[in-house]
Model the fold of this input.
Amino acid sequence: MKTFVIALGLLAVAAQAQQNPAAAAARNWREAHERAIVAEFMELLAMPNLARDESAIRRNAAAVSAVLEKRGVKTRLLEVPGAPPVVFGELATPGATRTLIFYAHYDGQPLDPKEWATPPWQPVLRNGPLDHNGDLVALPSSGPIDPEWRIYARSASDDKAPIVAIAAALDGLKASRIAPRSNLKFVFEGEEEAGSPHLAQIIENNKGLLASDVWLICDGPVHQSRRQQIVFGARGITEFDITLYGPSHELHSGHYGNWAPNPAMMLARLLSSMKDDDGRVTIEHFYDGIEPLSETEKRAVAEAPDVDRDLMRELWLGRTEGGGKKLVELLNLPSLNVRGMSSARTGAQASNVIPATAAATIDIRLVKGIGTEMAARRVLEHIRGQGYFITESEPDAEMRMAHPRLAKVAAIPGGYNASRTSMDLPISQLVLRTADSARGPVVRLPTMGGSVPLYMIEEILHAPTITVPIANHDNNQHSYNENLRIRNLWDGIELMAALLAM
Amino acid sequence: MKTFVIALGLLAVAAQAQQNPAAAAARNWREAHERAIVAEFMELLAMPNLARDESAIRRNAAAVSAVLEKRGVKTRLLEVPGAPPVVFGELATPGATRTLIFYAHYDGQPLDPKEWATPPWQPVLRNGPLDHNGDLVALPSSGPIDPEWRIYARSASDDKAPIVAIAAALDGLKASRIAPRSNLKFVFEGEEEAGSPHLAQIIENNKGLLASDVWLICDGPVHQSRRQQIVFGARGITEFDITLYGPSHELHSGHYGNWAPNPAMMLARLLSSMKDDDGRVTIEHFYDGIEPLSETEKRAVAEAPDVDRDLMRELWLGRTEGGGKKLVELLNLPSLNVRGMSSARTGAQASNVIPATAAATIDIRLVKGIGTEMAARRVLEHIRGQGYFITESEPDAEMRMAHPRLAKVAAIPGGYNASRTSMDLPISQLVLRTADSARGPVVRLPTMGGSVPLYMIEEILHAPTITVPIANHDNNQHSYNENLRIRNLWDGIELMAALLAM
Done:
């Protein structure tokens, strides 16, 4: 009976999806050009794309520009000294009164190639997820590509997929002679994964060029149920490297053990003072000032599918944090996360020493009402409250002796505040109607858990931002073996076509 | 006035040192052969000597045998399958009623060459400690070698120095025609730094060969005041690798942060539950059962020089643990030390993930009355008491889901119990008198902080062990840039000569 209801629901979804002619046109095009689309994608993924690798990132910018130019989009590079360029593209529609900006980024997260099953910039196809023993397969020479196959490469999902989806969508619209109704602009950034340190300045320098009615942020994953989701905000972020100090150099753990303080143990104590056993942050005032959700937003959160049990199975989790709240609720709260910890060596590399230093990198996700400076102040106050003297630069012997509890806390540049666009705006309603008609009833979320630099767009341009993700949630984004499920690329092409034509 | 008293004391020490003719003979020999002694040492240090590197460790065994054979010592290798050999040597003294065994080890601690200023097995001389800007210098072609120079190489101090000191001492005794009064045996082990996993078996197989009145353990550093010390015991040791589990793979910290449990934070909580802020171990019963010190031992501890303030300056420490107790007192207690911690990546390598696992390696130093099994049981009980299910092997998805708090705890093989020889035994008194006469009044300690496998010698052979170290305390033993101060080699040659002749 339950299966029957679900099947009926899916039929309804499919029927509804066909209501959008742009999406249908894109599907027809895609079905006839699957191999070419994937080939163009893989070519783009074969380019190393770390924001800090200047020559590589410029090669990416040139390739991304070429992808747009091929579709008749006029492009230019928006530059500030010392930064990867923004690829800007424009497709003017005579008589249009509305301007849409499609944002994506072409740089990828830093990585350690040793952790990857195949080299991160040598894209490969697998006939299923790697953690379900997906095998390497070749692009078939004819016939459709199995939509459950995946493409593995850095930025396959985050965030080159939308660039290729937009390109294919433009092809599909053109082939069906569906003209856009809005002016279309494209902003493809080259240093999002480095924290977008120059985006504000580039926007500031190009306010006229970047004027629009809405920024559609093509980044992040769809819902874990695999349903399309439309997201109206993103959490902000601020990050810190914390280093604690023990003896001037590693000491023999026998000759000095239980006399010389151990910085690894000190770090354990400091970090554990920041959260309780259920994951609630215990830093004073950490949750103070959160801007509450509107009634529409609360309803959207309540209506979001509950996938927590499935996700727990998928991620091998026996419990979750957050006092029994659903994931989708918890994303509307700020978080504190330990990205990594290191002190001397472990396992086979360990030697019997008292380490000289211990380090952790933490990130704090922010929500509306709690800005980066406020959050940073609270964290620093907490560290001081644990008895630590805080320095921003590497301490010398004198400082280490003067301050037995000494923490070097380096704020990682590039943090930014959270943002949230009201779901009740007319443009929000238009986007939701369009997406519903292209992809069936979509999941509506007030915020995503991740961070994209929406705040500066709202602040400088006073434009609303709405996030229209296409990647599968299980894409290993920001980790090794990042991948995109082919079905998500196909669906993304249809969504993009509908939005481009709206 | 204080300086004057110290100077008088040093004069008295110097006068007393000359009372031992064997030490004086060794000094004369050394003064005439400094370059040859250092050259022989550096040749030995140029051989990679990890216990697990079978061919390399056998080359060391051959070289060490040759060093002894050159001095007329008859050698053989004591073997068990799959283990580095013990180099056994014997120098019989007709009519002697006492037999002394000199123990040292020729293998070195595992290392990461990247951490070393110069390659670990390319010994170099520096005109001072590296952390005081000691520069590389060549062995002078004539004249004495500055005794404040240091030799940098793996095992320079731990533990090839005593082997070379014994060799030079034997040369000095022979040159002055001073005949040993005891039968002399030498046991040079090849896997001490791997935890001596086969030493017990080798001793068991060679009980007659290894019979003696005392084992003189030539390992470890002299007192931090640079005075000679004689040590009557060693702490035992047991070690664990602990791994905690989060999600099946690294997750995006935004999309899953404050929902998916973070194993780095869990590890921080677990470790911090094991010690309080002053370094006192909070594992239940951790200190129960400690065998108390005798009156002689208590007096020795009380009389040991207080170097804590100097050490703190040397090690850049603003505080110490242990409730205000002196280092020398604290070494008579068991300790728990975090050797290293790791989870995902930190600093420039960090990415915004929730790590999948977090690991720590800990060591526990044991004292008389608390054996390895007892200590291990207490640690495991504590981990269970924190809500963890313990597994010994890598858990699968099912186990991870069934036990949300899951710890893989792998006991590192090769731990052993503490040992302590009474200072009141006649052989203890003889060793102390001999050392006093050779090196001035020596520091007497009931135990060293470090661990050497004395327990099995006492248990299997019923022979007392007394440790006669020669290395400088600031030798970076067990870490990178291990070194030996030349003065310590010179002093060690005199001490060894006196002991060999006693």
Summary: Residues 1-12 of chain B have pLDDT under 50 and may be disordered. The longest strand of chain B covers residues 406-416. The CA atoms of residues 47 and 59 of chain B lie 8 Å apart.
